[in-house]
Amino acid sequence: DRDRTVTAIFVKDRYALTTQVVDSNGTISPAGTTFYSYNTVVDLSATPDIGYRVEQWTGTDNDNSANTTNTVTMDADKLVSVQFARYNTLLVPSTDTPTIQSAIDAAVNGDVIIIAPGTFTGDGFYVDKNITISGMKARDPNAGETVIDCMVDVNQSNYGFRLYGDGGTVVLDGLTIINARGHQSDAQDGEDPGDDGGSFLYVSKGFAIYAYGNHIIRNCTIRNTGRTGGGRGGNGADGGQADDADPSTYVPKGGDGGNGSSTYGGAIYLDYDSTLDYGSTLIENCLIEDSIIVAG
Fold first, then answer.
1. Is 274 helix (H, G, I), strand (E, B) or coil?
2. How many CB atoms are closer than 10 A to CB 102?
3. In terms of DSSP H, where are the helices of 133-256?
4. What secondary structure letter does DSSP report for 273?
């Protein structure tokens, strides 16, 4: 019914993803240039050559990751790069890494720790890196056994390895873990008439190996682990006269007994988190002997 001006605004609905490997030594998928709709989250997978690990991602949703998988959100054209580096082999004992814990602390994602034959004492090895911890026998069938004796203090709980999924997959291979055992006193009994006995609020999980994440445990032997006493809830105090001089303080009912402690996985406990896809640990060719739990 009159002159009009119409303006159309166009926006890009497909964006280009270009991926590349810096200095070779592995591959990336998807490779080359591919196209995706706006806001598509693209799964990335890097495959290092043998002897290499992921050193650096750039252009991804998480450039700080050293895992072989990552993502990129396509809200613009993106260039993604991955760079690989040789992994290190750390020997225990050695000048730089005289203990298992020092080797774990020094390792970065992709590294391999090889522990010599013999018996090593230590406990509570916390691992949240994508590394392999291996006994020498896993590399050389003629080598002697690598034994980790966790009995550091008979008056304390002595745990073995605590594996977490934050840094990727941890591999335990060819280790013998012994004497990872729990120790716990009983809860306090009720004192005054009608008092409840003391209770335990925490749970013990996995004395030799606690695994939270997607890990690999293979060719390992676990002996003499668990808990055989302690952790009893306290007895409730009997009812009665709280103050002999004051009849109103009479307590007709005895107190409730306290809750005993809980313990799961005398040898291995596999934890999980369904929201993070954690909990797919592989146990392969392992022997567990004399693992006993008597608790609570």
1. coil
2. 16
3. 136-139
4. B
Q: Number of C-alpha atoms within 13 angstroms, CB side, residue 283?
A: 14
Note the helical H segments in 156-266.
none
First to last CA, the chain: 88
Q: Helix %, strand %, coil % for the chain, to 5?
A: 5, 40, 55
Residue type, 104: I
Alpha-helical runs (H) found in the chain: 100-106, 136-139
Among the listed residues 116, 91, 120, 121, the one whose alpha carbon sits nearest the alpha carbon of residue 106: 91
Q: Is 259 helix (H, G, I), strand (E, B) or coil?
A: coil
Strands (E) in 179-220, as ranges, are 203-205, 209-212, 216-218
Q: Which pair of structure tokens corresponds to residue 34?
A: 């591919």
15 vs 264: CA distance, rounded Å: 50
pLDDT, tens digit (0-9, with 9 covering 90-100), for 38-88: 999 999 999 999 888 888 999 999 998 888 899 999 999 999 999 999 889
Amino acid 159: pLDDT? 83
Say how far apart CA 178 and CA 211 lie, in whole Å.
17
pTM of the full structure? 0.66
Rounded to whole angstroms, the Cα distance separating 263 from 204 reads: 5
Q: What is the pLDDT of residues 273-290, one digit of tens each?
A: 766 555 678 999 999 998
Is the separation of the CB atoms in 172 and 220 below 8 Å? yes
Q: What DSSP element (H or E) covers 27?
A: strand 26-29
Cβ 208 vs Cβ 268: under 8 Å: yes
Give Cα separations from 196 to 86, 232, 245 (angstroms): 60, 13, 23
Pairing type for strands 240-241 and 118-121 reads unpaired
